[in-house]
Amino acid sequence: MNLTKLLATAAVALGLATTAMAQDKTKVGFIYVGPIGDGGWTYEHNKGRLAVEAHFGDKVETVYQESVPEGADAERAITQMALQGADLIFTTSFGYMEPTLAVAGKFPNVKFEHATGFKTAPNLATYSARFYEGRAVQGHIAGKMTKSNIVGYIASFPIPEVIRGINSAYIHAKKVNPDVEFKIIWAYTWFDPAKEADAATALIEQGADVILQHTDSTAPQAAAEKADNVITFGQASDMGEYAPMPRVSSIIDNWAPYYIARTQAVMDDTWESVQTWDGIGAGMVGIGEISSAVPEAIKAEALALKAALADGSDHPFTGPLKKQDGSDWLGDGETADDGTLLGMNFYVEGITGDIPN
Amino acid sequence: MLRFEKRPQPSQVWTYLTPLLAVVITMIAGAALFAALGKDPVAAITTIFWEPLFGEFAFYYRPQLLIKGAPLVLIAIGLSLGFRAGIWNIGAEGQYIIGALTGAGVGLAFYPMESWVIFPLMVLAGALGGWIWAMIPAILKLRFGTNEILVSLMLVYVAEKLLAAMALGLMKNPEGMGFPGSRNLRQYESAHNAELITGSGMHWGVVAAMIAVIFAYILLNRHILGYHIRLTGQAPRAARFAGVNPARLVLFCLGTSGALAGLAGMFEVAGPAGQVSIDFNVGYGFTAIIVAFLGRLHPVGILLAGLLMALTYIGGELAQSNLGLPAAAIQLFQGMLLFFLLAVDVLTNYRIRLSRSEGVA
Amino acid sequence: MDFGSINPVLLLASLMVAATPILLAALGELVVERAGVLNLGVEGMMIIGAICGFAVAVNTGSPVLGFVAAAGGGALLSLLFALLTQFALANQVASGLALTLFGLGLSALLGQGYVGIKPPPVGKLDIPLLGDIPVLGPILFSHDLMVYFGLGLVLAIWAMLKYTRAGLVLRAVGENHDAAHALGYKVVRIRVLAILFGGACAGLGGAYISLIRVPQWTEGMTAGAGWIALALVVFASWKAGRVLLGAWIFGGVTVLQLNLQAAGIAIPVEYLSMSPYLITILVLVIMSADRSRAPASLGRIFHASQ
């Protein structure tokens, strides 16, 4: 018997052992890319973990590891959780895609869930949120609220998820305010408070009075607070400490219902590998309370839009829409399909500037 | 008044005892820290030091020690040669990145062709990339007399920016849905730095690290060049009289450390990491400096120090997920270990005397 | 493309703010290196300053006390480095790196209860009359106190190094510690004081980020500013005035690239942000022809009985 077999057998044996143990306590593991105190992305995932603990009480045990670098270290961290008897492991960053896939191959009896990725396996599901639905609501408020008609957007990396958000916000801002203009800064970071603050300041100095951010720290909120009459939106987390001004609303990543449902599925032995992409309707994307700084009429419209997006009667990408280069994209009344959205690499008509690279 | 008196020769006994002493002090201080955080100190210490080696799942962690330790040892061996001669390359992190970029670049250029020549070519390219990056401070030092510490450090930042530019641009996976990062070299057989025996953790980088340890040992103890390196470090003037060519020594030491760091980067990108990504580098180049000093610049010492460092990483991760210790506590613990190791080293080179007179220390 | 949307006055004003943290930290490191000590732990001392300053400012409601605590925290951490390198005679490069690791870990632990809290605001020092001068007013005369403190420190260190006996002794220690010792100067004592000063300055720089520039506490929030400060000292060829210039260039590149982007001007961001470091290397090369160069004893261990 060679080493490969030995290891595989050991892994399988352990896998069996964990299923046997699972009858009394289900162990759920979480791999975080940042510290749980980042106030944004990882913070919300950790809130989801705490919700799982609160919901199931003694029936679950949760473990987590924070600030895990993407790459070789991630693979070890995930393997370690599987070895320690986790029944279900959530890996919460795009960069964990390959490591999760590799570990999932070695532990067929452990269930894996990878956030924001696109590769699956029989025991590896993916999940993500339709944040662009929340962006539509933000765009609407931004278009109505801006006086300078300049909306600043702090983007992180030129990837489809971020581009989707920009397009969605722009379409809805433009709909209510034909004169609106977007200024976009690529910060090339998810999390760098000083740089995010500088980016927000640069946008404000160039006339933006609405700041949208797709980076995770609350630094842009603080920068906007210093300048008067600039409004912002919380990202990933509610960032309610900056309400009612500058933060007028937020997109909240609400992972708790999903984490609870999937843990339940493992307990009931009904877990299947699925590709979940939920939005406002399913409660995965939350819209933080629209603050008193927003006039009632606009607030009502925004809530109506939210309701329409939730029940599916409206779609953020509804034609007629053209691409930035003027070519036709969606016909009248047509809505974008998920495939195009997942690989989105173009701006819609009206946005100036180029996507880097 | 405490007084340090330099020993005529470093103490043999203390050379071996100090690392142990430091580990023991760190365990005590660490236990206090973990207790202060409300965790069982004994459990925490055993999780970090015992579990990965002899725990239930040691069969998985022991190979991981090699994977984590190999790049540290490989880089530290190269650095130690220069450090002995008083040539300070602290930009190994940059050379590591460039080695990964050139190595991966060659691999990606051949994609999807399968051939046995690709991997050796990548190895060469990786070493060459690191070598070139280290040659910049070397040549500037020889030509203009610039300080190699500072130039090599500046080049780390340049390399990091270059890495980001590559991951977002030239080397971006065309099938990656627009996400930053290159193709996965682990799924490209000819370029994959696979484990030589599955489950053993032994990939070519580990082999290279071991070869480097042996070569460095022979070089320092049996070869005239090694003698020159040691002599230059201990008595630069004497070395010159002995016919040592300082320029050649600078080129050799910086070049070797750069090439080894480049190799480490290349083996990492083609193996454990798999792809060129924005945050591919996790500080091996800087940690290796610490490893070199912990190992007392001795090849065997470096091997042990590299493994000890790897142990604290892996044990630390275990303690995080098993005991819920925050990542920061582990970082702090590692910092303490380094402090104590550096601090007790004084016993090797100096005698401590009590004296009444106004001391010099 | 629209250069017109960039307001040069506001750009220069925010450049002053972006430059302040690295300016403070670099000034401290300058004094340390002038004394012949290379402390690579600036990042660690900055982040400790950031959390100490933040915690104290939040608990007392006084940003001033916060800055005092930040200086104290940074100095306290640097004391560890001083003990290691000056008394235990450990290698400075390794000790500095260990200090950074230690500082990052400790700050994250200390800061666990401070995430998501807003610090007391630091008022801008709107100088009447001067602040109303067009163009120059907003650039120079409407900042918070720390910006002026930084500028004052540049002046003070420049004068100290150039004109005072203390500066002369400091430089002597940095150039040739054996000779300085032979002349009867307390090499170790002087170096320890320099290290403490460097720690205090780095702490202030860190607190500027957490109390004014961002202002909030998040783990790892200095995000490499300490390393930039190290580069800055070299760039400045160990001269206080040039540190100021360098801080504006290093800080300016970031602010400028963000502003260019916001104005819709496509620029290769990564290559632009590489440039300060390449310029620094160039400066090193040019400097080697000049008489100004690194302190001769930089990074070397001093032991009196040698």
UniProtKB/TrEMBL annotation, chain A:
This is Purine-binding protein. Residues 25-302 form the ABC transporter substrate-binding protein PnrA-like domain. GO terms for cellular component: plasma membrane. Gene3D superfamilies: 3.40.50.2300. Residues 1-22 form the signal peptide. It comes from the Bacteria. It holds the Pfam family Bmp. Keywords: Signal.
Automatic annotation (TrEMBL), chain B:
The keyword Cell membrane applies. Pfam families: BPD_transp_2 (PF02653). Keywords: Cell membrane, Membrane, Transmembrane, Transmembrane helix. The chain crosses the membrane at residues 13-35, 67-87, 94-111, 117-140, 149-171, 202-220, 249-267, 328-347. GO terms for cellular component: plasma membrane. GO terms for molecular function: transmembrane transporter activity. It comes from the Bacteria. It is a multi-pass membrane protein. It is found in: Cell membrane. PANTHER family: ABC TRANSPORTER, PERMEASE PROTEIN, GUANOSINE ABC TRANSPORTER PERMEASE PROTEIN NUPP. This is Beta-methylgalactoside transporter inner membrane component. It comes from Roseovarius gaetbuli. The lineage of its organism: Bacteria, Pseudomonadati, Pseudomonadota, Alphaproteobacteria, Rhodobacterales.
Automatic annotation (TrEMBL), chain C:
The keyword Membrane applies. It comes from Roseovarius gaetbuli. Its main location: membrane. GO terms for molecular function: transmembrane transporter activity. Keywords: Cell membrane, Membrane, Transmembrane, Transmembrane helix. The keyword RNA-binding does not apply. It is a multi-pass membrane protein. The chain crosses the membrane at residues 6-25, 37-58, 64-84, 96-115, 135-161, 192-214, 220-238, 245-265, 271-289. The lineage of its organism: Bacteria, Pseudomonadati, Pseudomonadota, Alphaproteobacteria, Rhodobacterales. It is found in: Cell membrane. GO terms for cellular component: plasma membrane. This is Branched-chain amino acid transport system / permease component.
